[in-house]
Amino acid sequence: MLTRLAPSHVRFGSFEVFFYRGQYEHIAALADHVIDNHYPEFSDADDKYRLLFKEVTSRTAKLMAHWQAVGFCHGVMNTDNMSILGLTLDYGPFGFMERYDPGHICNHSDPQGRYAYDQQPQVGLWNLSCLAQALSGLVSKADSDEILESYAPAYYQHYVALMGGKLGLYDPALEDFSLIDGWLKLLQNNRLDYTNSFRDLGNFDSAASADNHALRDQFADRAAFDAWAAQYRTRLNGNTDAVRKARMDEVNPKYILRNHLAQIAIEQAEQQRDFSEIDRLLDLLSNPYDEQPEMQRYATPAPESARGILVSCSS
Q: Which of 145, 146, 188, 280 is 20 to 30 A away from residue 125, measured at CA?
């Protein structure tokens, strides 16, 4: 038996059900339940519902930034799948990007890319606007609009902090966005693995005379890499490479749940009743940032034959 566990299974859609049924008294009761059990610091506030919506908006912005930073694609971001606690839940057709592709779609029943990787932050905002409508009897439109306008700045603040950390930058700021974007364009244009490229960047030699051959040779467009590397080297400003690498390895996973790895484990369990591969993946992914030499093959990108794996809600 498989059981879903979460601190709460209340979602944005839980409020919408009552809104569209005209059961407005249930919206207040559900909001009170959420506040009392999960946001007790707001319980005695006169504007507790406004504070609830503001906190959910902040958490959602942060959640979207984390998804984008790690290359996670949820796959089906209906309001019914958005947690009121800003958690990741109900992800049936999820997947992690392999080659960096901002338009990556992980759900085979989403051919138009509504929930593609690069659409997730905007969909998060859309879902919050739906929640605002459901809470319109408790939170004024003026307050909701003001809170919704705070979403984008909060998202970019978290996103730049996370991505700057992945690049090993000290005190990343919005001014670093062009450097971050330049690196992502390099990965896209050279069809490189998202997870491995960040991990490999930890070995960048910041010395002015360094050619970084092992890293540079992964790029078909070496001139473009050289141009970006010059900007990166300047931004690093002589920080110790060993210290930077240690910090980068703490935020850039060595291992992710690649679809072909999950497929192998599932087939072994279903066909042979052998769950050892599931156990092995669980152990491996419990420490995704650690070097585990005996598990090196799990860090290898999917073979060409397995790159097109897509899943669905029933997978």
A: 188
